[in-house]
Amino acid sequence: CAMLPGLAGVLLGAALIGVGTGLITPLGFAALAASTPPERLGQTMGAAELGRELGDAGGPLLVARVAATASLTYGYGVLAVLLACGPMVAAGLVRRRG
Fold this sequence. Notes:
- This protein is mainly α and 98 residues long.
- Helix content is 86%, strand content 0%.
- It is built from 3 helices and no strands.
- Helix 2 runs antiparallel to helix 3 (72-97).
- 1% of the residues are buried.
């Protein structure tokens, strides 16, 4: 999104992000609900939704702060690095519990 030129590029990138989020969120929540014991379903889904909402609020704020300091490209770059670290941290937590 940060590499696309002009407003049209940013809008196209935002639309693609929205489509991706609209596809993956229901699938992820369905998989989470299917793998959670019924007695813990409310707590698990609530925690997952809280994490998603924090990301929805924090991501744009982080990108805006870095963009104000450096540029929009760097803002998206920092966000990409953090998002790439997420699965690695999750895998480490799963291994530690397992």
